[in-house]
Design brief:
The longest helix has 13 residues, at 445-457. This protein has 20 helices and 21 strands. 33% of the residues lie in helices and 20% in strands. The protein is an alpha/beta fold and 542 residues long. An 8-stranded parallel barrel has the order 3-4-6-7-8-9-10-11, surrounded by 5 helices.
Length: 542
């Protein structure tokens, strides 16, 4: 094992290609299983043989340095309030374990001193500062009282001013600057990040592993003797990419699981090990697929009732109202109307005229009277339940108008914009950065490969999910099994959800096979059957 000198400290660090790997830091402790930033999570990290732990710290109202990530208490403690507004005596009584599991009921918020007491010889502690520079002096006092080893404790922060203050007040300790590297693929942005890093006086840099940078950029920083960490990596394919980049440390929620997967490169990735069943995303095509009329309020409601996410195809009426409708004209959906009406499309009618159309009867008498939904109607349905999300497939809509209406309704983060056009996806991200996107594509294997290569060369910019259309020909999946496996690996290495749309298929065997191959999400016209298949798969029933 060849030692590498980094910022004056020797670390054993080699590439996994020689059966070794960077060191693993447990993100908020072993937070895959234990509640984050708790004594239980940090103890579990040591049990999982993590090389270090990472914790987040704020100042309480009365000046105690406490371990907590969020600005408020709602997600983890289930109540209103902020750390800065509460005293330690109040904070120390809160249950921050039950939200994760009943097994951790009664787990408490620890203080910095409590976490330092758990630090083992030879292990690292990434101390992330969530407050401003005012917290540095209290932290320094606690470190001095605990006789903390400067070779073990490393300050990390997103705020460049905090990093500078750490270097000024506590120069015996190292400090790393954190950044998501947002927009680093834009002209001049990557260089600007490097310049800002240099201005902080930091000895290391930590970045979001999904950032649009490559191995050469990482190497350039390492050539300047910066220690490099990528966060938060929970997938082996993503970790392998970071290893190829040459990072020194990987921050992960699951140190033992990730280490084991890296040691067994032949083991196929399986969704059951990485995504909870309740988080598995099933897109109900055009509302509820074959279960009802397309793009109606009733179809959307049915999809949500099945635990799936409906898709709405959206267009704009003659008078500028965004509505849900798939086809370019009314021939298929309005078979009983006159030819004069059927040859028209949404853009030829006003909202009042569209709202009067019966889009249910073509599917059957029991659906008679269902109407076209406006986007305003969809927003209202979303607001009925905060867990609801919806895919919106762009047909003919002004993206800025859609973004403004979503923002006004407070539902931007629950929209997943779907398109086969990269420029539409990136345009949407520009006006609605808090939303999500799905890039869908069909075609033969060669065409799909070419499109994927082009997207990868552009760092999959703006893409959160990617959908491949799958068919069976003479009993064989197309694209091929090998292509699907490799596509899954490529997408996971970039943090992109891999979704498939098996056309005209609802048999359990097909969906089970796709999950075996690494598929992590489905779009379907048979949401009831597919939902059951996925549930059975998670339960181990085949």
């Amino acid at each position: 094992m060849k030692p590498i000198l980094i910022t004056g400290v020797l670390f054993a660090c080699t590439l996994f290609a020689s059966a070794q790997h960077p060191r693993f830091v447990a993100h908020r402790g072993a937070s895959h299983k234990a509640p984050e930033n708790t004594i239980a999570a940090f103890k579990l990290a040591w049990e999982e043989n993590a090389d270090g732990i990472e914790g987040d710290f704020y100042l309480s109202k009365d000046g105690e340095v406490v371990c907590f990530h969020d600005k408020d208490l709602k997600r983890v403690a289930g109540r209103e309030g902020k750390i800065e507004e509460m005293s330690w005596s109040e904070l120390s009584t809160l249950d921050v374990g039950s939200w994760k599991s009943p097994d951790y009921k009664g787990e408490k918020i620890p203080r910095l001193a409590d976490v330092l007491d758990l630090l083992k010889p030879g292990k690292l502690f990434y101390l992330e500062i969530k407050d401003g520079p005012e917290i540095v002096a209290p932290i320094g006092k606690i470190l001095a009282e605990k006789k903390a080893d400067p070779e073990q404790v490393i300050f990390i922060a997103f705020d460049a001013e905090v990093v500078k203050e750490c270097r000024r007040q506590l120069p015996q300790f190292r400090a790393h600057w954190l950044s998501s590297l947002k927009g680093a693929d834009e002209p001049g942005k990557a260089e600007a990040y490097v310049k800002e890093l240099g201005s902080t006086g930091a000895q290391g840099f930590q970045f979001d592993w999904r950032a649009p940078v490559g191995a050469e950029w990482v190497k350039a920083l390492k050539d300047r003797k910066y220690t490099i960490t990528s966060w938060t990596v929970n997938d082996a394919d993503a970790a392998r990419r970071m290893i190829r980049y040459g990072v020194d440390f990987i921050t992960t929620d699951r140190p033992a699981g990730l280490r084991a997967e890296l040691k067994d490169p032949e083991k196929l990735w399986n969704v059951r090990d990485h995504i909870k069943r309740e988080d598995f995303m099933i897109q109900s095509h055009r509302g509820a697929g074959e279960l009802g009329p397309e793009n109606s309020k009733e179809a959307f409601g049915l999809a949500w009732s099945l635990g799936t996410i409906p898709e709405a195809d959206i267009r704009t009426t003659k008078d500028g109202v965004i509505v849900a409708f798939h086809d370019k004209d009314f021939h298929r959906i309005l078979p009983h109307e006159t030819e004069e009406v059927r040859k028209k499309g949404i853009e030829h009618l006003t909202w009042k005229e569209v709202a009067a159309l019966d889009i249910g009867v073509w599917k059957g008498e029991k659906f008679k009277g269902q109407r076209v939904s406006s986007f305003a109607d969809i927003v209202s349905q979303l607001k009925e339940d905060p867990r609801r999300k919806i895919y919106v497939d762009i047909k003919n809509v002004d993206l800025k108008q859609l973004a403004d209406e979503a923002d006004k309704g407070g539902v931007t983060s629950r929209l997943i914009l779907a398109s086969t056009k990269p420029d539409v996806i990136r345009g949407w991200k520009a006006v609605a950065p808090k939303s999500f996107t799905l890039h869908w594509m069909g075609g033969d294997e060669a065409a799909l490969a070419a499109r994927l290569d082009k997207l990868e060369a552009e760092h999959f910019k703006g893409v959160d999910q990617l959908q491949i259309h799958v068919r069976r020909k003479d009993g064989v999946l197309t694209p091929s099994v090998d292509f699907l496996k490799e596509t899954g690996r490529r997408l996971r290495a970039r943090g992109i959800l891999f979704q498939t749309l098996p056309w005209e298929m609802k048999d359990a065997e097909t969906y089970q096979q796709l999950m075996d191959l690494g598929c992590a999400s489905f779009a379907t016209d048979f949401p009831d059957a597919v939902s059951k298949t996925v549930t059975d798969y998670y339960a181990g029933s085949r």
